[in-house]
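Reproducibility note. Readers wishing to regenerate the assembly model reported in the main text can use the exact inputs given here. Chain order matters: entities are listed in the order in which they were concatenated for prediction.
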Amino acid sequence: MPIDILMPALSPTMEEGKLAKWLKAEGDTVSAGDVIAEIETDKATMEVEAVDEGVLGKILVAEGTDAVKVNEKIAVLLGEGEDASALDAAASAPAPAADNGPAPVPAQPVASAPHPQAPAIDTPADPEVPEGTQMKSSTVREALRDAMAEEMRRDGDVFIMGEEVAEYQGAYKITQGLLDEFGPKRVIDTPITEHGFAGLGVGAAMTGLKPIVEFMTFNFAMQAIDQIINSAAKTLYMSGGQMGAPIVFRGPNGAAARVGAQHSQDYASWYAHVPGLKVVQPYSAADAKGLLKAAIRDPNPVVFLENEILYGHSFEIPDMEDFVLPIGKAKIERAGTDVTLVSWGIGMTYTMKAADELAGMGISAEVINLRTIRPLDIDTVLASVRKTGRIVTIEEAFPMCSVSAEIAYQVQEQAFDYLDAPVLRVTGKDVPMPYAANLEKLALPSVPEVIDAVKAVTYTA
Amino acid sequence: MATATKSTTGTGARTTGRSRGAAKKAAPAIAEFDKDQELHAYKEMLLIRRFEEKAGQLYGMGYIGGFCHLYIGQEAVVVGMQMAKKDGDQMITAYRDHGHMLAMDLDPKGVMAELTGRRGGLSKGKGGSMHMFSKEKHFYGGHGIVGAQVSLGTGIGFANKYRENGNVCMTFFGDGAANQGQIYESFNMAALWKLPVIYVIENNRYGMGTSVERASSTTDLSQRGVSFGIPGEQVDGMDVRAVMAASENALEYCRAGKGPFILEMITYRYRGHSMSDPAKYRSKDEVQKMRTEHDPIEQVRARLLDANWATEDELKAIDKDVRARVAEAAEFAQTDPEPDPSELYTDILL
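Running the prediction on these inputs yields the following structure tokens for the assembly.
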């Protein structure tokens, strides 16, 4: 029976990759452990080893093919005594179930036919982008890299330090190319020593340098949180305004995929609790670029919470020489009349899909992308709630003492008379992140949960 | 670096360790002070002593609140280091910081008014005893989390190297902090990147109420950098001349681009850890012995008299001047108004 060779998943968040090169040709004998192909993910080029032995019977995906989905059949290996005729037999047999692959990727939301009364989708232009600006496509990853490179060109006091940021080109490839351009003085590989290098960065910032401290993930920043809060956030106040810390702490935050409880937590509310910090949580590539540039220029300590899953997502981004977004200003991603949906960071992915589906059901949702958590642009939220009378917040973090809780408090305080329904929130569940694929999915928010919440606040069956 | 040498320990402050390890250095000979240096050291140390005594009084009177950690007994450490440093070199320390600020030439009125939480305090009354800073004088605080200032000081050294300004950051911490993990994270990076940092371990023998012997598996703290290749030496921290000589040597090493240096200052605090510490973990005799045999100020005073560089009357006049400056600071600190309520919401963000 011929053996299918499938496109392997080479990282927790990989969904597809490029089949860069075949190192074996059809008819070649292959032993287990032989490198048979090279695959490019968005983070790295990886070698693929054969796990079985046999003869490479047929290559199904030519080298150079982009966007090959994980688990797609890329070649067939013939066992001992089999020849090419076995391939035809295999082709007619039912496809083998992927018994060890990741759970199937959730289907794209069904693009429902527009409801007869469906409201037109109103996507307002970003007021921060001048009219007539050309747009280009960029991943969040590229946007972050470009933001740092532009700011490092602009200001010699800006440097980046962290684990694997230089020679490895970034654990998530956010710093790709920076070492080549700026050299080891300004792109600094640190030992695995979060507490120490966070403190070192704050000390350098107290003298006026502008460090960007990358945490490989914010989970590891727990080792350093004393320096972020007690040293970076409080020094300006404790010194009576004499010295502060112009520093950016950045890195992926929140759940990636299947990495378990210690690597899957959203720290937005932790940092948002602390006066003296600014906290930014970008969603799109434009958010990432414009806000990271602003964070680097900001004279205050900024916690910049990225998301690993969003790194590979592509967005339209303004093609401008110096695109900087204001910290502390939310963006209305979609205008609507029936309900206000407030989200930020990766929460926006559920929110935008839900808004699409709601439009199909005749419910017009106004979607606010907070962009910044602290200072919180509550005015934009309140103006929307005063219009729609209903609000649902969406985030991946735990519910207790969450950013959602703060928004709900401020809305009831300042827009109580405008509310036609209780404030509802869709959050991650109040459990450590489980590893099992089905449980992990349950632990995170979902589009149906958002839709259910909107139905509840709009009293829609 | 292979030879083990006995460190110089001067006039009798106890050393706790054995001299072994590749990085062990002999402390340089005690500096010979001229008359001006002796008088300068005497005045500076006396100012700290009298200031701290006054702070203790004001605490008892309720003018100073919260925590207040006095530097009495340790004056020679910061004064000797100050005498060795050049303009631009920085200092950063933990919460026993009044002496550092006075040695760094910060106005005693501003320091005392910060202790009483008044608007004329160095941090406008918003920092308190543990949190004062001066960019102008290159003093970086004033930190309340044991050991945190060591990573910060390493970062200041990093900035010196980044800017190639030739400055050295003197990063102070105590024997208690020497067991914090981030000290060793900092040592590693400072040695790896050859950062100009002097780690000054003020070993006053007790981390709050726990003696070095009860807290540290190895008590020669000057050797804590051995596994990172950082040279270290023990210094008689009660003798201002020994401190200055060792500091000059360490500063030269750092300025030459060779990386960090550890100076373990063997010293002693006469008072409790803070004002609320009755210090029952040590005998009165132990304290008295240090005071009578090793007091840093008395040593200088005796030398000044022996050398006929000052008469009793001249020293009395100095004491009177110092007391007047301290009295003026105390007066200011008691009469200066509290911060305006509007200050509550300033200096949070720029």
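We highlight two features of this model. Residues 1-22 of chain B have pLDDT under 50 and may be disordered. DSSP finds eleven helices and eight strands in chain B.
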